[in-house]
Amino acid sequence: MLIWIIGAILALAGLAVYRRDEKKVAGMQKGTVALVLVILGVGLIALQLGYLEGIGISPLSAGVVVQGPADSSTGLGVSTYQPTGDYATKDKFSATSVSGTSYYKANGQPATTTAKTNTNPGVEYTYWVDNSSYYVKPVTKTAGDKVTYFVADAFANGTATVTGYDLVNRQSVSSGAYNTSMGANDQANIEFTYQGTAKQSAGPFGGVFVLETNSTISSVTCTGDQLLSDNPYHLTYSVTATSNTFRTWAYSSEMDDGSGSVRTIQCQFQNGATAVGAGSPYYAKFIPANYYVTNEGNIVLDTEKFLNDDTTRTGLGSVTLTSYWGA
Question: Which architecture characterizes domain 85-156 according to CATH?
């Protein structure tokens, strides 16, 4: 009602100015002043009646908006738009949709399984899905003033094959098919070959490479393009025999990136003054890292739930090669 009254007053004031005897009002031609007042008054009345909105003109907002409830004090509709988030997880190598327990995290807030349907422009959101058959990479985006689309890549949990090769004797080392000689003060050079399955992965985010050997082995040195200089992961490892010891190296996401490419690691073993003993086994293990939600509600990458004081592995499996030493 107030808008109607103001519009009517402006229109009538414009007519009154036009009928005055003076040629100028407030230093301006009275005709111009009158026309402006009439246009303002009629425009307010037309706006209140909805005529301007009907032809796509809204002086109260810009762009496409949603008409909100009327303001009780003025009777004027308030135009607002609430940006939203659209979430999906798909197989990285196909159009297959991947389901699971979805987690949503706004910056500074704990992750929750309640979807962030309404988003706020300028706020960073992270989306992740926990699935027992897929490795899912979290996606983080800063919400805009329209719909923000979150599409997470997922890797189907695949299989990988690890084999060993004695570089000196030119023999394959796998499942006891060849026993590499390893006497007292001896050394051996073994190349480990890792081959994943194309369009799947047994560890798309990297992980920890473990070599477990007889404790007579005095040193092991390993090199490879996919090995990291620092190990960011945590791993609680138990040897298979009390007479064994182990060493670890972190490996990158390139080890099993879903391409099925062959990767290699070269290791040199140095034995001590005592022979390892004929038939003594040693193990090459690849333990993958995966994401998990901490007790504080953060989504982090590790090989076990370290920040939760939990030694449970986060990966969906591991790959192991068992080989044997000779006399």
Answer: Sandwich (2.60)
Beta bridge partners of 262: 195
CATH architecture type of domain 161-324:
Sandwich (2.60)
pLDDT tens track for 248-283: 999 999 999 999 999 999 999 999 998 888 888 999
Flag whether the pTM goes above 0.85: no
In the DSSP assignment, the letter for residue 256 is G
284: buried, middle or exposed (CB in 10 Å: 19+, 13-18, 0-12)? buried
The rounded distance, in Å, linking the Cα atoms of 259 and 253 is 11
8 Å CB contact between 255 and 194: yes
The residues of the chain that CATH labels 2.60.40 are: 85-156, 161-324
Q: Are the beta carbons of 47 and 3 closer than 8 angstroms?
A: yes
Q: Which residues contact 49 (CB under 8 A, 6 or more apart)?
A: none
Strands 299-302 and 319-324: unpaired
Longest Cα–Cα distance of the chain, Å, equals 123
Q: What is the pLDDT of residues 160-201, one digit of tens each?
A: 999 999 999 898 887 666 778 888 999 999 999 999 999 999
One-letter-per-residue 3-state SS of 227-250: ECCCCCCCCCCCCCCCCEEEEEEE
Q: How many Cα atoms sit within 13 Å of 179 on the Cβ side? A: 13
Residue among 315, 92, 302 nearest 202 (CA): 315
Which of 162, 158, 159 shows the shortest CA–CA distance to 323? 162
